[in-house]
Design brief:
Layout (H helix, E strand, L loop, with lengths): L1 H15 L22 H16 L3 H38 L4 H32 L2 H22 L24
Length: 179
């Protein structure tokens, strides 16, 4: 029943968001999870959720969404570069036999990418404040966290809301009984 209500809600939100501009989805890859069947549904739900939570007027939405989409794309690219650098550091550390110079170069690159993330946040905060009142910008950040939390909760398996999804949750991998 909960899934039916969630589906109806997502459909209603996507219809209300149809007039909003299409967000740029190319920068972030979302892993396959149960829940929204594709990125279009997820993005439509996000647009509707943000528009509702922020109480955007049509004029504000017209100014906000292009800047937000640019922000989201830049942030996704920065975070992807950070993840890629982390993977390179981990691979080199796991492999061993690296020189200090090689590892130092990767570490510097990694920390520079981490800094870009913070710089983008500050830059776009200024941009958002130029086009929206401060209370709506605050509601945007709140909406981002609430939407993320809702998606995580929705992607969890039913009945497993409070339990970690480790191997013990799968059949044949039960926890040993305490004696």
């Amino acid at each position: 029943m909960r899934r039916i209500i969630l589906f109806i809600t997502a459909a209603a939100i996507s219809f209300s968001a149809a007039a909003q501009p299409e967000p740029d989805k190319s920068a972030c890859d979302v892993p396959e999870h149960p829940g929204p069947k594709n990125m279009e549904q997820l993005e439509s739900a996000k647009i509707g959720f943000f528009t509702s939570q922020m109480e955007l007027t049509p004029e504000e939405a017209g100014k906000f969404w292009p800047v937000y989409n640019e922000y989201h794309k830049a942030l996704c690219e920065a975070r992807k570069a950070t993840r890629d650098n982390y993977k390179a550091i981990k691979a080199m550390a796991d492999k061993g036999g690296y020189s200090d110079v090689e590892m130092k170069r990767l570490l510097i690159k990694y920390t520079e990418e981490c800094t870009k993330d913070d710089e983008l946040e500050k830059l776009y905060l200024d941009e958002f404040l130029k086009i929206l009142p401060v209370d709506k910008v605050a509601r945007m950040y709140i909406a981002e966290e609430e939407f993320r939390a809702k998606m995580i909760k929705m992607w969890k398996k039913p009945g497993k809301d409070n339990e970690p999804q480790g191997p013990e949750g799968r059949p044949g991998h039960e926890k040993p009984q305490q004696r």
